[in-house]
Give the backbone structure.
Amino acid sequence: MVRDFSRQAPRGGSASVSLARRLHIDLPLLLLLLTMAGIGLFVLYSASGQSIETVKRQATFFSIAFVAMFIVAQFKQETLMRLALPAWIFGVILLVLVEFIGVGAKGAQRWLDLPGLPQFQPSEVMKLALPIALGTWLQNRHLPPSWKDLFVAAGIILVPMLLIASQPDLGTSILIAASGFIVLLVAGLSWRFVFSCIGLLMAAGPLFWIFVLHDYQKTRILTLLDPEADRYGAGWNIIQSKIAIGSGGIDGKGYLEGTQSHLSFLPESHTDFIIAVLAEEWGLYGVLGLLTLYLLVIARGLWIGLHAQETFGRMVAASVTLTFFVYVFVNMGMVSGILPVVGVPLPLISQGGTSLVTLLAGFGLLMSISSERKRLWY
Amino acid sequence: MANTKIKDIEQELRIYRSRVFVAALFVLFLTGILVVRYAYLQIDRYSEYRTEAEQNRIVTEPVAPSRGLVATRDGTLIAKSRPSYLVSIIPEQVDDLEETLDELSQLFEVTEQQRARFLRRTQQSRRPHSPVNLRYELTEEEVAKVVVQQHRLVGVEVSAQSVRYYPYGELFAHTLGYVGRINESELQNLDSERYAGTSAIGKTGIEKTWEEVLMGFPGQRQVEVNARGRALRTLNTEQPTTGGELILTLDMKVQETAAAALEGRRGSAVAIDVNSGEVLALVSTPTFDPNLFVTGISHANYRALIEDLDSPMFNRAIQARYPPGSTVKPEIGLAALHYNIIDPNTTINDPGYFTLPNDEHRYRDWKREGHGSMNFYQAMAQSCDTYYYELAHEMGIDRYSEFLAHFGFGERTGIDLPQERSGILPSREWKRNARNRAWYPGDTINAGIGQGFFLATPIQLAHATSIVATRGYRYRPHLVREIHGSENRIIEPELIEYFEVDDNDWEVLHQSMKDVVHNIRGTAHLLSRNSVYEMAGKSGTAQVVGIAQGEKYDADALSERLRDHALFVSFAPYDNPQIAVAVIVENGEGGSTVAGPIAKQIMDAWLLDESGQLKQEYRNDGS
């Protein structure tokens, strides 16, 4: 590996900055994440019907998740690359296990209940293992990738994706695929190939509809198009969340004043639909404020990617960051009625345990990458 | 690796930067879509969604008004409210209705009828999450049982409701009537907004006629509800307007006296204040307990009432039509005086019967051997039929009908009770219309003694007698004197007509009616015994079945129900008339012996003070 020592000039940063550097902490990112965690707890208090218990539990998850982030940040990229293949294989094994001994509800097996461990979704493991494996694979390849490299990469993406899709958990499988696809995109996959793939997918849409989608998934898409068709059934969630958002107006109804969530008209108000609570109580200003914070996080993530020293770091940073945005977009899109309802939480705001740990562990990867960045500009 | 090209770091970085740049643009583009979407929902469609959110959470519930109280003229409450516990179920909150019903049946009795009615109601259209009533009138003990099990019985509610109560029960059943639960057909004709929170409506009697006043107006309560329809807090309450309170014209003492006097009989008594038309007592026996109907009468009780041969639900005072018999002789006699058919002192001989010229048929006098020579006073006092056959014959049916119409016969009096019947005043026109037959001379003769086609209700007889008493003032009989509440109103007497007849004729008539009681030969002479005031009256009997010519009347041979009806009409005091009374005792036989004493007791109840003297205000100090 080549290091440009001339660019490693000592910096005149403050003591705290150098301490952060020594602890492999990216200070701007950490401050943004802490701010959002605070906002998340604040909104959750309202969304959970002022349950201090829920907030405490979520705060505990945040602590665990931040610790996980800190631990992951300590890994050297070399170590991560060495762990990549075993992690991916381990993830696939878990996903295969889910097929046989998984537990779940409503006809979907998504959870694994292994002795001595809390219940968890193996797909969470894959959310991190996949970009790492892909980044590792491309680390020593010539980029843009050759057809042969792409073929291997496709395998790395498709195996876990199909396993998750068969649980069935279409939402997660698409998000997992997206995180892999993003890697290929920033690796230089030709636009012609990208658009051919998109065109092919659109052409295959009807077949997809007929042979792949389950009835409940079709219902969700139909509901998106016409929620009033079943106002008190399938359409209820989306109608009520739109009422919550819309009735918030520009200024919002005020903290703890949201009627839609507090009177239980809004379902899942503290998990997937929490943005509706924020929109109802804080109005458009709240929504814009939150989006600004998300954009800042994304900007910092991309900045870390741009400054990464290795291909691996660049790939993983871009994947983690942009996947993070995909979560935000899908969640806010589905709650506001422009995307079908899939079970995607709003990152850092929705209540959740394991997904939060995965998310912040992902930011740990970013910090790990950030700590080994090269200085392009002074 | 051998088959891999050497990495070109600069090229890779160039591609990476351009791709990240494109990705960043794409991120901004998608964020823009989100911003536009949220701005569209929160700005463009704000007012629409704001309204929907409000409609979600605020439910306007009606608050039922309390029904107006009813009191007699002396201030005794005869219709009020009492609390009643009921069990209702919110079907939306119950998984298995049948199972819950079975469970509740363990706690208190639920009849098949109640169960079926409940299940039927859950099928009818109603507001979602509104309770459906299962059983009323739970005892305290039953309430306790349900409350103890409440935690297991999700969706089951016990609530207290204010229901109508008639403390005097049977006494006012035929005047007050009763309220009952609104049925499907009533529901369709009601102002649904006004009755939204109310389950009872006046079914008969004053409760029905005065429904508009008694009902009151509902208030509103705006309640914040959650998604499951549970009321969380009251935002706003608009109080209901209590129904108007009615002060009736009925007098407790007079009513009780009349009811006690008729106890155990089939019959009716009506007493009217002659100077206003105010009804002082209106009794029909046998009667029933109106409280049975308030929260729904059971099949068994209802069947018992319907199948009773004595028809306790039948309001004889306004619905039963009897031949008035001799009780209309005063009006017929007055007509004869008015048309100068007779001079009061001229006598007519009564051989015991009357025959029309060229006709063999004998119209019999009740006294078979005849009364002999009778003048107007004697004929009235002794109720000579032959004298009245003669008068009717001379008068002719047209003058007869026209004159008697002024006393309200043949039409409803217009009392404020539902289902009053009009009776029949015989006339040529009536017979042509109703029977499609020509009028025969014999019909006129029968009409002369209030028989034949003539039918009148007890209220009509009391009404006619009050017109006689006041010498022509015809006031509409009515039951409500005052209304209190949001509107305070005194019901003024309504003079329908003043019927002008020469005062000398009235004087003669009154004198003759006084003789009925106070002349030693009067049919009701026994009533004058121990009377502290003078009165005027007329007795009557009405045949239930026609007695064939020459057949001897034998009371014993006829079953009790075929005996003659006993009638009596009267007014008093004679020189300052205050009260007019009509009494009918079905199959009572003796007009003056059975019905007369009842009329006398009723008049005493109104006219006498506690020491048994004529009340000061009814004494005629002028003369």
Observations:
- Residues 27-371 of chain A form one domain.
